[in-house]
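4.2 Preliminary Data

To establish feasibility before requesting continued support, the project team ran the inverse folding procedure on a target of 413 residues. The structure was first converted into the token representation described in Section 3, and no sequence information of any kind was made available to the design step. The complete token record follows.
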């Protein structure tokens, strides 16, 4: 289990002891205090993300000897949930980088992954570059890479162009990775591209939530990739390895929603304490003394605690799967983690918007001003959840019980 997100008295708290032990308390508290201002002014959190990089958030999973904090996977998720409670945009913006780190930790001797780990140790973050493929359906596993990089003899380097839509976090990243076919040997390769000339990010994300994640379009126009940053593909998976490779993403997204729910519980206390007058037909002069409002606050607290317990179960399964990597137990434990992630998503995607609704009920007309920014919780929850709709997860979970059908092996599971 990750560390508790509640105090000894059971009330929710923003920063867990784990995040505090990594020296992140002050940064997280500042991010939380300024979240509404950023939301209302659409101010991109460049400074806040830069500070987190400098404090080592992006390198938590690296060993201390390698320049990190030696955090376990469960501890990483605990801190990420704290960050999502402070500002879910910022937590979400780190998702692709943190996944690249997880992939690299499994193959640290491969030169491509060693490069990723070196960048991470230096406080850099990595996003996704252009990587066109023949996959037609969202999340499907491609059979062929279509992006190309061309050797430029004069520059003694490769050149490439392309675009990445839904480039979550790329506005804030220092380097980018991708797959392409290089023209000298017509081989599919993976590469690391440093931010530089030809890399352009548009803040054109028009979603009604998660508006500061940098999820717009990334353009790569004639970018230069040094030959020493072009690498062979990873070796084929060993026989018997688990084919589900993207469960981290699913747990991370649901973990972000759990962080938003925690923030709702924290905001609910402030909302009720701040209300100055009750309705004439209430039973108490002060809203904080109104039994029905006290009960609503208790409902928010209880459901928020249930959400955290549910995501912890999925995180524990993912940690167990990580620990089994490369062993005979890998297949069953990775499968269990995939199913647990789907279960958590179904429950949390259903409950979280309700809890956001209850916050507005608790505050009534006192909280509907745009200046309060409380509507962002519902909007952010729904946008995060939309990345991999729960309806397909519900179907798979039912089919698995009835017939033993296994989860798909592409993205989103």
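Position-by-position output of the design step:
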């Amino acid at each position: 289990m990750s560390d508790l997100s509640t105090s000894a008295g059971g009330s929710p708290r923003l920063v867990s002891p784990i995040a505090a032990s990594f020296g992140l308390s002050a940064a997280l508290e500042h991010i939380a205090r300024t979240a509404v201002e950023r939301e209302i002014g659409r101010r991109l959190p460049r400074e806040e993300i830069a500070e987190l990089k400098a404090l080592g958030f992006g390198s938590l999973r690296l060993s201390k000897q390698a320049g990190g904090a030696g955090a376990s996977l469960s501890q990483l998720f605990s801190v990420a949930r704290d960050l999502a409670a402070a500002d879910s945009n910022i937590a979400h913006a780190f998702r692709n980088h943190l996944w690249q780190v997880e992939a690299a930790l499994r193959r640290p001797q491969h030169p491509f992954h060693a490069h990723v780990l070196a960048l991470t140790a230096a406080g850099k973050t990595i996003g996704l570059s252009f990587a066109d493929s023949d996959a037609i359906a969202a999340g499907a596993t491609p059979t062929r890479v279509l992006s190309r990089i061309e050797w430029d003899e004069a520059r003694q380097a490769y050149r490439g162009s392309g675009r990445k839509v839904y480039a979550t976090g790329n506005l804030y990243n220092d380097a980018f990775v991708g797959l392409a076919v290089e023209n000298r040997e017509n081989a599919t390769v993976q590469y690391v591209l440093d931010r530089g000339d030809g890399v352009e990010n548009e803040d054109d994300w028009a979603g009604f939530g998660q508006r500061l994640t940098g999820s717009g379009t990334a353009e790569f126009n004639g970018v230069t990739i040094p030959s020493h940053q072009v690498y062979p593909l990873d070796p084929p998976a060993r026989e018997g390895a688990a084919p589900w490779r993207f469960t981290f993403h699913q747990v991370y997204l649901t973990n972000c929603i759990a962080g938003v729910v925690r923030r709702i519980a924290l905001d609910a206390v402030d909302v009720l304490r701040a209300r100055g007058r009750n309705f004439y037909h209430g039973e108490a002069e002060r809203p904080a003394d109104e039994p029905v409002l006290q009960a609503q606050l208790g409902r928010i607290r209880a459901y928020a605690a249930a959400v955290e317990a549910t995501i912890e179960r999925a995180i524990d399964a993912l940690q167990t799967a990580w620990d089994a990597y490369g062993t005979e137990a890998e297949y069953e434990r990775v499968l269990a983690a995939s199913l647990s992630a789907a279960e958590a998503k179904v429950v949390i995607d259903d409950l979280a918007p309700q809890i956001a609704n209850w916050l507005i009920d608790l505050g009534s007309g006192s909280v509907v001003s745009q200046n309060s920014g409380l509507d962002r919780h519902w909007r952010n929850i729904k946008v995060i959840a939309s990345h991999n709709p729960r309806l397909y997860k519900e179907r798979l979970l039912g089919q698995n019980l009835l017939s033993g059908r296994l989860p798909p092996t592409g993205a989103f599971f």
